[in-house]
Amino acid sequence: MRALLWSAIAWLLVTQLVAQSPPQSLPTDRRNFVACPILRDTRTNPCWLAQYKGETYFLGSLGGVSDNFHPPQLEHEVLVEGTVATGPRVCGGIRLNPVKLSVLGEIAPACNAVLPSEDGIDAPAPQPRGKPDSWVKTDEPGSLTIFFEFGDDFMSVPAGNALKDLVKHFTSSGATRIEVEAFRGATLLSDGNVLTEHALLAQERLAKVLVILKGLGLPERVINARTSEAVPKPDGVNDQRSRRVVLKVQQ
Amino acid sequence: MKYSVAVATTALAFTGLLLINAQDKVPGANAPASKHWIEPGADLVLAKEMSYSDSTGRLGVINAQGSIATKGHPFFETIGSNARACVSCHQPANSMSLSTETIEERWKATGGKDPVFLAIDGSDNPALPQDLESSHSLLIKRGLFRVGLPWPPAANANPEFTIEVVTDPSGVNRDPQWGLKSAHPAISVFRRPRSAANLKYVLAPDETGFNVKRGTLLDRDPDTGLPESMNLMADARAGTLRIQAESAYHDHQAGKKGLTKEQIAQITGYESQVYSAQLWDTEGGELVLPGGPTGLGPVAVSGEPGTLLSNSASNPVFRSFEMWNSEGATAFQRSVARGADIFNKRSFWVRNVAHFTSIGTGNPAKRTCSTCHNTILAGNDHAPGWMDLGTTNYPTWTEPKVGEQGSVLPVFRLTCRSDARPHPYLGRVIYTSDPGRALITGQCADIGAITAQQLRGLAARAPYFANGSAKNLMEVVDYYDRRFDIRLSAQEKQDLVNFLRVL
What we know:
Chain A has three helices and 15 strands. Chain A is α+β, with helices and mostly antiparallel strands. Chain A folds into two domains: 114 residues, no CATH class; 106 residues, CATH 3.30.1330.60. A seven-stranded mixed sheet of chain A has the order 2-6-7-5-4-3-8, with no helix packed on it. A five-stranded mixed sheet of chain A has the order 9-10-15-11-14, with helices on one face. The longest helix of chain A has 17 residues. Chain B is of the alpha+beta class and 503 residues long. Chain B has 14 helices and 17 strands. The two termini of chain B are 33 Å apart. Classes of the chains: A alpha+beta (251), B alpha+beta (503). At the A-B interface, helix 1, helix 2 and helix 3 of A face strand 9 of B.
């Protein structure tokens, strides 16, 4: 009980839950919500599910530190930002694709549901590791955008690898400067509410990226770093892309 | 006087009965490891290849660069201001650690006068009467040395949590000279000395240079600029052998002048070339046999691995034991092979392990023992291995959960600031007997994070876990079985124990 109280207090401290007036509407196939994840065991791999407004959604199966998909965590709520995909249910849930999950930081002991394996419910076969496009975007050499989970500055392994590649490009191309800009974001939920990341998060993301750039050998004098304090108006579709750090190598 | 046990086997290979027979001709070769105690300042020659009796057989130790003369060598000499040497806590016969069997023997043999029992860290509390055995109970009963760490941490003057002493059986954390409210505030925790063998595996950093636990770069070796593994110590506070040696010189040997470059080179050079692994088993006999498992014995460990990260299917941590999973194998060998299978392939739900299930694997994650004990031939975690397995934090800790039963370890209450990210599974108020890496970083997410250890030479260095809570390997297996609800049968537990004891 005490933990739940703490959870509620801290949640209010780090986010601002603002009812929009009038409520914005999302595309009909869009699902953005906060829920407890549900783990369904199978004979092979686990399935991760979540329920919203009486419907069950399939979030994903296997994942790992280097993967595009990071599964949720029991004992934490998860922010789901996804689009309903066509096709049959998976593990009993409607598939979301693409889907971005953010494990919320405060503990939520009530999020503890594990369903046993059932005949006829199987996890999808493991897929080859795809492009980590939920973590990084690299349109051209010398350009990199790093994405983050909501409310977090944790740098994924794909993002770390991309930063290494960017520094190599900086060195090999004879560049003279690198522009770094960090942002925090907001998410429009399906119920019309907006979750906004806490005020210091852009600075925290920037600090983390700068530590890595310097650790990879870039001198401070070539880095032009700044944060954007403005929070873009969320549209419910591209909101996960607002939680980012953008890097651009300048010749 | 030269140490005849060690010199006798210089020319022999670790490949069969030849060695054992030869060793048996040496007086004392079958004696317990405690009989092979190396005193600081001893005048010995440690052979290139040695073996020592231990709890379930015989440990093999290799000096890959050849025999070592201990006289004048700073690993074996008293180089600080007390009577200690590095070897005091890192004995070859104990797989370069120290077993409680050996410690108890030293107490009996010296009446507590051995420098290993010095008040500074070989005592539960330096303020207690040092001539009493009870004042050294944590060392004698659980193999624990006191580690006093400054609070707030040297690296973080503004930690994310406050710390209070809840219970303090030895009194050291409330002591006016040594405790949290002393002139030099410190938290004392109690930890086992880690094995200083097979260190090339422990020191090898993740090839990416990335610290997956914190989403940043690995710490860098200040001397070379290269990434560190961050796996050398329980709390990763020293990342290189040089830094560890200098720290130990000051903290354990009360050194004043500092180590010379030559001394550092000799100490780290010795540590970098010593390998240990089990060689012979009381039930299983010879472990290194033609056609047998290729990952057993110290020669295998001293070899160059092609890769460091294992794969349970194609490249298991300790190589294949399939040849022992056959009708021609002995019952013990078949049990070891089954244990290897459980270690590599039996999946279970790993739950609420901060820095493992909190970094992208999902919580819980369906994994195996070898997921974390993944470094080829050694079994440590190749990524920075510090995670909160749960051994030190309530309610999963290894200590009694009922107050009246009491714990021999101190208990602290840590309260995280509201603006800090909490511990991912324990929140903002945490009871712990050892905050682990959090005492170095001051971060809530690190509370209880302790570096996973290598698994070689286990039979020679009980008890286990960083807090010495598991008296034997069955207690280790039992802890995991309870912690993760694996539901191993009695036979499966014994198979795992048999597997671990031959490593």
